[in-house]
From TrEMBL:
Keyword Ribonucleoprotein: no
Localisation: Cell membrane
Organism: Candidula unifasciata
Alphabetical UniProt keywords: Cell membrane, Disulfide bond, Ion transport, Membrane, Transmembrane, Transmembrane helix, Transport
Name of the protein this chain belongs to: Solute carrier organic anion transporter family member
Transmembrane intervals: 87-107, 127-148, 169-187, 224-246, 258-278, 308-330, 377-396, 416-441, 448-468, 577-602, 614-635, 667-690
Similarity comment: family membership: Belongs to the organo anion transporter (TC 2.A.60) family.
GO BP: monoatomic ion transport; sodium-independent organic anion transport
GO-annotated cellular components: basolateral plasma membrane
One example GO MF annotation: sodium-independent organic anion transmembrane transporter activity
Gene3D superfamilies attached to this UniProt entry: MFS general substrate transporter like domains
Superkingdom field: Eukaryota
Length: 691
């Protein structure tokens, strides 16, 4: 191969061919992790020998920043076959799927179960979901800035690296976070349900609830373990979506970058979908696996039922620990990275400022980089779009199973399963499809921003699906007055559970065991229905002599032996809107996630080459601080506003038993429209200001 020279600032040319230390060639070239800081000169020999960039990249692999495969001094020749972008993509995709399964799958699936088990409000559960993003924001600046200028796979395997050489294994920390999240199950007492079988009316009873034990207060304090588990999830997952994306981008051809990242993000979507479906199955298993729930009068249809919410986190914990091993084995760059570095930088946003960043590491350079990026108007509008979209994605992913559960009268497990079935084909296919569209049509930044603008507008239109409501559940004392039988007249009246028909029953609101009367009206419990007798017919629990149920037994009832007046469980109803709503929800997922890869590609292309990791870090900070952190809290607050029936406990209100579904639909529609419109306008403004 011909001689290579580098000339910097008029200095004397350096003959690289005579450089003895081949490992320093990248430094002389100014190439660090595939970033060209210097310039490549070719003389007549190179021209005569017809050596092009591709040939240089192939013949000079030792100078492209790549290194050996292994863990420190423990290196293996046989693993060199895995030193390519495709195998790294496999490892990174599995890591992303593991993270998504734990954080966006299992957490969102079990959120309503955790609320009931540990007596916490929706606002507090929203904060649990946000803790992941809070830690992400705290760590993303040091990781994306210093990691972007260093050994990316090592940072992908380590969440942060201090000058004292103390590091934490990133994907390993994510696994530990899953173990911590499941810890409350193992350190708290077994789930105990009082009066699970016979919460009947006890006439002339003076029993009152006691607050001396303080059990409710101690249960709610377990939320701090969930906070810590989510913080550890965020610490471990931060490098995946900053350094992982840029490392992949540096080691593949420019036109294939969106396609590779699309596959990675598809895995990150399939992970939550798997978490929804697997987590839903675990919720059908009783939380104390050594206890027979039938002996407690419990089954999955019982509102006091607590499923095995913790099993999924043990699985994601073990996966995180094992995945740390292959991630740490990759070198600072893959063979051929120097060749791909020469292809980049042609679509960077034009700026009148002189880019002086990247020359020195430290606080001054961080501030210069911040100034340069924050004056990049298209970049900032893309960030705002990501934040607005982040509110919707984080809010709906956390609370959509719960919304479907209460809006359409489904169990927690069934609702989570439906969401998972919608996310698998829609979210995964759309994420992959977005990257494929960019590659297939070879879209430039302008074309990408036009695509994102149109897709975001479609989301605005589909948001009206949230207005699809089922008939109001007839609930005595909440939506219907006692004695009223006109089910069609059900409306939200507030809460007035006490009535002359149950005033001598000594009922307590802690015992929420809804029963469906033969008058097709739901009652808070057998006690509030005025039922004095229990009839056991196999696994079905029925109640007789119910003074509040407006139903008169007939002669045929006595003949058939059907003398019961209420049956345990909520009244069943079929909502005609469920199928159409799930179809619209699936399309909403498609049009939300189809923009993820194109917008990521636009971000990578409109910032300088050496600021890509840092730029992604800034984008994640904006998207989380203004999007996915307040998103679940905001949506949780909407659920609390719509609550009609709170659990009563000694320390105050616990979780919510019953919602005003009409108000809930309106609240969520207002949020969806507001932030979908904000996303559309942000992409449009980014397109207008792009040069």
């Amino acid at each position: 191969m011909g001689d290579l020279y580098v000339v910097e600032n008029g200095a004397k040319p350096v003959d690289l061919a005579q450089t003895e230390d081949t490992s320093s060639t990248a430094e002389i070239l100014g190439v660090e992790n595939g970033y060209p800081g210097g310039r490549r000169k070719s003389d007549s020999k190179m021209c005569n020998n017809k050596v092009d960039v591709d040939k240089v990249g192939m013949d000079d692999e030792k100078d492209d920043g790549s290194g050996p495969c292994g863990w420190g001094k423990l290196q293996f020749e046989c693993c060199k076959r895995f030193l390519n972008a495709r195998w790294f993509l496999v490892v990174l995709t599995i890591c992303g799927a593991c993270q998504g399964m734990a954080v966006n799958g299992f957490v969102n699936t079990v959120i309503s179960t955790v609320e009931r088990r540990f007596e916490i409000s929706s606002t507090e559960s929203g904060l649990i979901a946000s803790c992941y993003d809070i830690m992400f924001v705290i760590l993303v600046i040091p990781i994306s800035y210093f990691g972007g200028q260093g050994h990316k796979p090592k940072y992908l395997g380590k969440s942060f690296y201090l000058s004292t050489r103390v590091g934490r294994i990133g994907i390993f920390v994510l696994g530990i976070g899953s173990f911590v999240f499941a810890l409350p199950h193992f350190i708290t007492d077994s789930y105990h349900v009082e009066n699970a079988d016979e919460t009947v009316c006890k006439l002339q009873s003076n029993d009152t609830a006691s607050c001396s034990s303080g059990g409710s207060t101690s249960l709610s304090n377990y939320k701090y373990f969930f906070y810590l588990g989510q913080l550890l999830h965020g610490a471990g997952a931060t490098p995946l979506y900053t350094l992982g994306v840029t490392y992949l981008d540096e080691n593949v051809p420019q036109r294939s970058s969106a396609f590779y990242n699309g596959i990675f993000y598809t895995g990150a979507i399939i992970g939550p979908a798997a978490g929804y479906m697997v987590g839903a199955k675990f919720l059908d298993i009783y939380t104390d696996v050594t206890v027979d729930p039938a002996s407690l009068g419990l089954d999955p249809s019982n509102p006091k039922w607590i499923g095995a919410w913790w099993i999924g986190f043990l699985i994601s914990g073990m996966m995180g620990v094992l995945l740390a091993l292959p991630m740490l084995a990759y070198p600072a760059a893959l063979p051929g990275s120097k060749k791909y570095a020469l292809e980049r930088g042609q679509e960077t946003q034009a700026s009148s400022q002189v880019d002086q960043t990247g020359q020195h590491r430290g606080l001054k350079d961080i501030l210069l980089s911040l100034k340069y990026l924050m004056t990049n108007i298209p970049f900032m509008f893309i960030n705002i779009a990501a934040a607005a979209e982040g509110i919707l994605v984080a809010g709906f992913s956390t609370f959509m199973p719960k919304f479907i559960e209460y809006e359409f009268g489904l169990s927690a497990g069934t609702a989570a399963l439906y969401v998972g079935l919608a996310v698998v084909p829609a979210g995964g296919g759309a994420t992959f499809g977005g990257g494929f569209i960019v590659k297939c049509f070879n879209l430039k930044v302008r074309g990408i921003l036009r695509l994102c603008t149109v897709m975001s507008f479609v989301v605005c239109v589909l948001s009206v699906a949230l207005l699809m409501e089922c008939d109001t559940t007839p609930f005595a004392g909440v939506t219907l007055s006692y004695g009223q039988t006109d089910v069609g007249a059900a409306t939200f009246l507030g809460k007035n559970l006490e009535n002359t028909c149950n005033q001598n029953c000594s009922c307590v609101e802690e015992d929420y065991f809804p029963v469906c009367g033969r008058d097709k009206v739901m009652y808070f419990s057998p006690c509030y229905a005025g039922c004095t007798d229990v009839i056991h017919e196999g696994s079905v629990k029925r109640y007789a002599n119910c003074s509040c149920v407006n139903y008169n037994l007939t002669a045929s009832d006595y003949t058939e032996g059907s003398t019961y007046m209420a049956e345990f469980g909520k009244c069943e109803f079929n909502c005609k809107w469920l199928t159409l709503f799930m179809l619209c929800f699936g399309f909403m997922i498609v049009f939300v996630f189809i923009t993820s890869m194109p917008s990521l590609t636009a971000t990578l292309r409109c910032v300088p080459d050496h600021q890509r990791s840092f730029g992604l870090g800034i984008q994640w900070i904006v998207a989380r601080c203004l999007g996915s952190i307040p998103g679940p809290i905001l949506f949780g607050k909407m659920f609390d506003f719509a609550c009609l029936l709170w659990q009563k406990r000694c320390s105050g209100d616990g979780s919510c038993f019953f919602y005003d579904t009409h108000k809930l639909s309106l609240y969520l529609l207002a949020l969806a429209l507001a932030f979908a419109i904000a996303t559309t306008l942000s992409f449009l403004l980014a397109l207008i200001f792009y040069k």
